[in-house]
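tokens incoming
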């Protein structure tokens, strides 16, 4: 499902990507667990889709959720954690939340 979500996003079908992304996350949490790396990637990718749609509050929530888990599971220095931090800062700036960024 994650691959299909990315195909939708790559083809500009962001609304479909968001809906499928939500389903992918729920399945990932149930089957793999909420801290599994694949589940974390799915949450991150949903944040990216929201970001593209300029739904910054939703993107921020996704990035915050995945970042908390990535720090615990992968640690601060992991490339995925760093990528999520970068995206979160960018989304916070888009919302003029400069103090939080």
């Amino acid at each position: 499902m994650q691959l299909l979500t990315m195909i939708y996003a790559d083809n500009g079908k962001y609304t479909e990507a968001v809906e499928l992304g939500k389903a992918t996350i729920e399945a990932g949490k149930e089957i793999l667990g909420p801290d599994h790396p694949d589940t974390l990637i799915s949450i991150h990718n949903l944040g990216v889709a929201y970001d593209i749609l300029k739904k910054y509050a939703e993107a921020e929530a996704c990035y915050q959720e995945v970042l908390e888990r990535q720090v615990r599971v992968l640690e601060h220095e992991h490339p995925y954690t760093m990528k999520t931090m970068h995206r979160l800062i960018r989304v916070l700036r888009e919302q003029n939340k400069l103090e939080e960024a």
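note: The chain has five helices and no strands.
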